[in-house]
């Protein structure tokens, strides 16, 4: 009898191979972490799990969380947990501990945190920073002081490691009714600190990086999602049960117009009769994908309508936009990021979203000025995480599913001022109702109520899951949209100062052999423990002026 050969597996596509390579690299660091754990070196093991997470965040590996890594970090945390009875359940929430990896003077992340604390006037808020770098903006201190909370504490300014910072965070949290995490994707400190949910206040995770891999599902008493697609991913790909997911819109400041649209145009040197299209986002959100530039998408519209102009704020100069810019006689301008783009929002007749990476915050801001909103979503529905599906924006943003449809929408809006007025008014009303005060407070109180109603989290069953990369949607197109190929040597450099002296020096030598340091001065700076570097960078300790510190 003739033998029958089994059919061969189909060859992997280039994109699938990329995902597989990224997962293999992530796997390499997880295995190294396990080796150090087996040696009893908890400090280095913890740092390697953070590195692994950083790798998976920057270079998408087909996973949105890692039960395997979180299980080990959970075990480390439980191992360091003193014997103690379960914490009594709280019946009300009065004192809240807000936890961030770091805060900054610009950006929506810190802005929403401070707006949240200001809005929640009846409760006391305290801020802990796990791995803060650089000065802390004074307005952050002012906001938390006004709420009645304790002095802002920076854990990485303590002479110790991530393990010790986690133990300190655990100690601080004992005095609070609730913990809310606004931490970065790779932050392992809360995972260790709150390993056993029965012994700590409920931990709420703000899912602000909803399209990325992040650590934290196993300690999420409640996961706060800012849009529908994020909630879907959290349930399907992060192992968080439906009852522990909740929706809450982004809190946005109420918009106060200071100039008419015509006045703003004049200030920018633009004829008031020009129909002005505006887009505002970080440069990365306008990346060229598959040879198609943001300029190419708008070329035909600008050629067809000589009374129209497009300004992108934040994109900066792109060499591959030049042919279109020349073809439309300068009616496509692209400027660098500016601290206050208010005049551009006030001047806009139509707001157009960034592409291929959407910008919901800018859409909400534009809506506040009564501007009609247009976005592009050309991907399958399984990739909804790459589109706009936020409270109040759904139904109030014109969403094109093809470039031809997008250009038709813009043509319609350019030609119809009455339609622009109606759509802009509808968008403004919806955003004001859900994203501004006092309406947003209803969502916030709903989150607190759900947190009190839920039983204590038992995270052990979910930690038995297995890391399995997906080669389907949305993973397959993730890196095309958000970029990747982050040099892992720079990631390792970020953590060597958190390792014990022996491993710190060994890894420093390895980085130096691989040419990771840009100069001798940078190399010298990475010999210093992380906590000491923070002391110097923040001016707590003064060193001679010729000594410099990177990172």
Assigned CATH class of the domain at 79-251 and 441-463: Alpha Beta
Fill in the CATH topology of the domain at 79-251 and 441-463.
Answer: Rossmann fold
Oligomer designation: single chain
Kindly estimate the percentage of residues that lie in beta strands according to DSSP: 5-15%
Average predicted local confidence, pLDDT: 92
* Largest sheet, spatial ordering of strands: 3-2-1-4-5-6-7
Describe this structure in words.
- Among the domains are: 79-251 and 441-463, 3-Layer(aba) Sandwich (Rossmann fold); 261-436, Rossmann fold (3-Layer(aba) Sandwich).
- Residues 541-550 have low confidence and may be disordered.
- Strand 4, helix 7 (189-193) and strand 5 form a beta-alpha-beta unit.
- The chain has a seven-stranded parallel beta sheet with strand order 3-2-1-4-5-6-7, with helices on both faces. The chain has a six-stranded parallel beta sheet with strand order 10-9-8-11-12-13, sandwiched between helices.
- The protein is globular.
- With 551 residues, the protein is α/β, with parallel strands linked by helices.
- Helix 1 runs antiparallel to helix 2 and helix 2 runs antiparallel to helix 18 (488-495).
- It is built from 21 helices and 13 strands.
